[in-house]
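Just curious: can you write whichever protein you like plus the matching structure tokens?

***
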Amino acid sequence: MRPMIWTALAVAGLDQLSKLVVVRWMDLQTLGVIEVWPPYITFRMAWNRGVNFGLFSGNSDLTRWLLVAVAVAISAWVVWWIAREKPALPGQLAAGLLVGGAIGNIADRLTWGAVADFLNVTCCGIANPYAFNIADISIFVGALGLVVFTGREKSA
């Protein structure tokens, strides 16, 4: 359980620190766009009030609190599942990534009412219209890791 907990704390901390630096100190919330490594990496401010790619977004407090409740419930279930199943280290780290990312995005919803997305990566001549953050990356990699590294029957 400790690897999961430490990973979750590290991811949530790194996510919130990155938002503090980019959104507040670099003032992305006012500037809107900062070219970091054109055309590959751009900081582009996006307030996500929904889930991935803005799905189910709404400006109501009901939507905000419903998404917080869903994220807390999923995180609690993952922690309970990992405590019960006791997977090997890769599974625990994957769970920590997912839970830490969820905590980072929950903190945003509690603080700002929406998730602060700012990373925009473009490659190979394909313009990416979406922004994301460290928490989003962690949730995706953590969920993928849970699929790959858990759920198999233990060998005798």
Observations:
- The chain has a mean pLDDT of 90.
- Residues 2-149 form one domain.
